[in-house]
Please model this.
Amino acid sequence: RLGPSVTAIGIMACVMGAYPLLNYIPVAALAGIMLVVVLHTFKWFSVSMVVAALLPDSTREKLGPRFQRKAPRVEVFVIFLVTLLSNWPQGTNIAYAVGVGVAICAINYAWSSGQTFTWRESYGPDGTKYYDIEGPLFFAASNRFAKVMNPDNDPDSVEVRFSSSTSIMDYSAMEALHKIAVSYAGKNKKVVFKSLCPESEKMITKANKLCASIEYTSREIAVPDVEGIAPLPEEVGCNE
Model:
């Protein structure tokens, strides 16, 4: 903490009042200082990680354990692209380059999160069909979710059970739930979405005018007893 503070104070003093003294410092000395800073701040071990990301598994095994660590190829692509856009073509700068890099990483994250969407089908003793959903539900997974449901061949009673890792994250997911509910209602069948988290329930409540056909139940949240905290009045009455 002391080093960066002293550096910041020194730069502020030079810029605000001592800049005439900088004229007496040779440019070669300033260039040498910058080179030393670059040499000490650059993470040299990352070079092998970047190279390893561009090599196949068989080649990395032959080169030894040093090349077993590798960065994701998407991130390596972003590194090269940001470096290129910082200097070329003319008119671009580091701000534009960082914006492009952030956009590519965001798209990659959305794609990767969409691939975690999974489901499992089962039937209850009364003939009810269950869909157990895992993973976030948003624009990258809502289309897959709609295709999973089968209103033509499903029984009259269907329940979609969301896991603890599943939540409705955007309007595309709510629209998918609404279309599914309308499709089942058109076949005189009933579909209920169960175990919605409070955030998902809040989104559906706010958009009730747009997705009034959705029938759902809230997720039950178990509140553990904490020693030293008095029970609620209704709990006392039940115990008596």
